[in-house]
Amino acid sequence: MAHHTETGESFREQEAPVRDYQEGKKPTQEDERAKKFNDLERVIRRYSTEAGQLIRILQKAQDIFGYLPEDVQAYIAEKLEIPVSEVNGVVTFYSLFITEPKGKNMLNICMGTACYVKGAQVLMDTLKEQLKIDEGETTPDGLFTIKSTRCVGACGLAPILVANENVHGKISSGEIKKIIQTFRKGESVENQKH
Ligand code: FES
Q1: What residues contact residue 185 under an 8 Å CB cut-off, 6+ apart?
Q2: What pLDDT digit, counting tens, does each position of 92-125 carry?
Q3: Exposed, middle or buried, 126 (CB in 10 Å: 0-12/13-18/19+)?
Q4: Residues with CB under 6 A from ligand 1
Q5: What is the pLDDT of residues 1-54, one digit of tens each?
Q6: CB within 8 A of 194, min separation 6: which ones?
Q7: 168: part of which helix (H) or strand (E)?
Q8: Of 17, 73, 131, 161, which is least packed with CB atoms within 10 Å of its CB?
Q9: Ligand 1: centre distance to CA 100 (Å)
């Protein structure tokens, strides 16, 4: 059922269920989801009055949901009264956005020019082969997500792998395999060696 807000915006009830939490009752998954949509609603209200805020709204939405699934994109499009294709175009253009749940460890290969000429594609292929997933996907155990990124400003150390917050320079396929093993063992890999 469609509702209209004071500003004339409309949204479907099932897309933004609002529930009151009963004190002492553990929130269900549905409650959590409803809360996230309420948070998103607040973000949209705050930023939608200013022009050119789509990227900011998407960033905030990703902070809230952890990623940007289709229903979240559709909700934002409806609230901003723009086509879903426009929202989706921005989401797929910027590498910071992800459309699937993020793994515990984010492995980003820099695909900027300097890294590319130093073999970034080979590194990406190694990651895909080792983890048996494609770029933008997460392993079924939820441990890894692989992504490509634009230049991270460390071209002198190309090629670059950014593993979570850590930048690994002059990285080789062999070292990537070791990093994966280390993460699998549950150890943290310290900042880059070079
Ligand atoms: S191109 Fe990779 S850090 Fe600049």
Answers
A1: none
A2: 988 788 888 888 899 999 999 999 999 999 999 9
A3: buried
A4: 110, 112-115, 151-155, 158, 160
A5: 444 444 444 444 344 444 444 555 677 878 888 999 999 999 999 998 877 899
A6: 157, 169, 170
A7: strand 166-168
A8: 17
A9: 25
